[in-house]
């Protein structure tokens, strides 16, 4: 068995490479000049542009290969800046922002005229968040405005959780890469739409449904088939090159062996309860027992299995509570319609 190391080893290796104050100033200058800056957040690396520069925002879509109708998140330095970007702040949004910002929560609100339509895919709402990463916050402060940032990967593929992932995927298409080490949440922010009568979760992410419900004191709708465009919720998003197949946890080892014997180069997401079992496969990533650790490793594992030449990945879904909900969501999207689950 050919074990895949977790990001902790990588974290160790790159934790020394962090952006300096002068890097951050230089990156803010690049944003001012209409350039694109990849920067770390607590969730994934973002591909930043000046939110008020339509040409820069449009370039983001070109670099990602993302359809221009798919809206971006505007990143701001703190809750005190929110009023400038939105038409109004409903009570629910205020409660959630106060509780979870800075943090992995994105709020969908009615946009103010300050937000160009290029950033919102022509919609009258805007997604906003305050990232919880010192480098991101320093960049936003140095820049002084809002920064649109989708995940810094090509449309449909796996989101980057290290600066190295960004460099290898986007290369020269990005004007500046700020290295803040590996992202500590590892899956994207939770998106909550607060424009309707009742708030609804458009994308599960780093803030759990349970945390949101506790903050609001009531149950929440999880509405992933929303009328609002959420490309992250389309099939085959967050997808590696290898085909991802989801099976029951107890079937992972047998399915992997069968596919390997059929001639596939199989990558396995081995459930933690089978960590010590022998597995016949090309590469094995042992799933961490804690969902927080799993979320941190998830995208790195997918990239690593691709890099090792796997054409098929056999995985199972974690229990869909806490961060497990976001992990299961990403695995389903990575598997696409084929998974049938
Ligand atoms: O954690 C994150 O959210 C990362 C980091 C970089 O902040 N960003 C991220 O951006 O995941 P992106 O573009 O990969 O995903 C943003 C999601 C998309 O699914 C988009 O459709 C949704 O946010 N979105 C943006 N504006 C929206 C709006 N006005 N209404 C509904 N959904 C919106
Ligand atoms: Mg994305």
Q: What integer value in Å does the Rg equal?
A: 20 Å
Beta-strand residue fraction: 15-25%
**Given the structure, what is the number of helices?**
11
What is the number of E strands?
14
Strand order of the largest sheet: 7-1-2-6-3-5-4-8-9-10
Find the structural class using helix and strand composition: alpha/beta
Unreliable segments (pLDDT under 50, ≥5 consecutive)? 225-231
Q: Shape, please?
A: globular
Provide the helix percentage.
Answer: 25-40%
Order of helices and strands: HHEEHEHEHEHEHEEEHEEHEEHEH
The biggest sheet, with number of strands, parallel, antiparallel or mixed sense and barrel status, is: 10 strands, mixed
Bound small-molecule species: threonylcarbamoyladenylate, magnesium ion
User: What is the typical, i.e. mean, pLDDT?
Assistant: 92
First-to-last CA distance: 28 Å
Structural features, described:
The protein has 341 residues and is of the alpha/beta class. Helix content is 32%, strand content 16%. The chain is built from 11 helices and 14 strands. It has helices at 7-14, 21-32, 54-64, 91-100, 117-120, 134-143, 163-170, 209-216, 252-261, 291-307, 324-335, and strands at 37-39, 46-50, 73-75, 105-110, 125-129, 147-148, 176-177, 190-193, 200-203, 221-222, 243-246, 266-270, 283-286, 312-315. The protein has a 10-stranded mixed beta sheet with strand order 7-1-2-6-3-5-4-8-9-10, sandwiched between helices. β1 and β2 form a beta hairpin. α2 crosses α6. The chain is globular, with a radius of gyration of 20 Å. Mean pLDDT is 92; it is low at 225-231. The structure holds threonylcarbamoyladenylate and magnesium ion (MG).
